[in-house]
Amino acid sequence: MTRILKPTQFLRRFCMALCAVSLHTGSVAWADTSFPNQPIRIVVPYAAGGTTDLIARLVGNEMSKVLGQSIVVENRAGANGNIGAEHVARAKPDGYTLQLGTAGNLTVNPALYKDMSFVPTEAFQPISMIATLPNLMVVNKDVPANTVQEFVAWAKEQSKDVFFASSGVGSTTHLTAELFNIATGLSMSHVAYKGSGPALIEIIGGTGPVVMFDNMPSAIGMVRQGSLKALAVSGPEREEGAPEIPTVKESGYPDFSVLTWFGLFAPAGTPPDVVERLNQAVVQVVEKPEVAQQLRQQGATPTTNTPEEYQRIVEEDTRRWAEVVGQAGIVMQ
Hints:
The protein folds into 2 domains: 40-133 and 260-328, Bordetella uptake gene, domain 1 (D-Maltodextrin-Binding Protein, domain 2, 3-Layer(aba) Sandwich); 134-251, Periplasmic binding protein-like II (D-Maltodextrin-Binding Protein, domain 2), CATH 3.40.190. Helices cover 46% and strands 19% of the residues. The protein contains 12 helices and 10 strands. The protein has helices at 7-33, 51-67, 82-89, 103-112, 120-123, 148-157, 172-184, 196-205, 216-224, 272-286, 289-297, 307-328; strands at residues 40-44, 71-75, 97-102, 124-140, 163-166, 189-192, 211-215, 228-233, 259-267, 301-302. Strands 1, 2, 3, 4, 5, 6, 7, 8, 9 and 10 form a 10-stranded mixed beta sheet that branches. The protein is globular and about 65 Å long. 41% of the residues are buried. Mean pLDDT is 89; it is low at 1-8 and 10-32.
């Protein structure tokens, strides 16, 4: 039997259908064209003032111009970067809460902290790398070695332990030195400090550790002043800002290469079109001559990539550092 709708019933159903269509098309338009339509937060999982914080503020400021929305940098330090990372991992995957992640907190920490509440390779969607940074091998100026090979030979001749310094247990400065131990056959002992500053001061003093693989920006100044000697950079190539310093790789250890990286990450599940928009913004910003220059002034090399490329790097580095941590027997206290 055919049911005949009253005019008021027909009108009501027609309006409901029209509203549903409007809402549907409106949501599609938002996903495709309206991002971002509110401020974005970039969480830095370390204290203000460090290299990660400086990069986040530099890039965030320029991205706000590209995206037409304000970007707020928020520092959430603690647990070697885990606290800030966990906050982002639990955030809504809409592109409005991001993390300025590092090789340390995203690829080293999984091997150090067995009780992490998230798995970085699964919890985050890479956006793009921003910069890479080598570590600089520096020694006390009285150490009778001017090359990596001379240092290795000298260290092997010592009748007592040779100590290396780091900015903290599990830091990339720590693990780079452990990898150097493995590559060279040395068995240097570790002394951890609360930051690079105190560690470098001890090396200059010459009463304890004699060598450190420190981040380029914090160590190169002391080398320029003549307080320390630089033997090599940890990266695969010589640095543009210090081309006179060779790599460990070219000093007789072809498989040795370590770069610390910094990049932007969103929570897993962020829509692909939002990821693409953010990636385009990062690339556009990092390619600006003035931004690239400021990154180089920090001792960093401007570097971008695709989300897929970045995911592979994160996975490869996670496996690599897990092996180093295991071989070195590093245990967090």
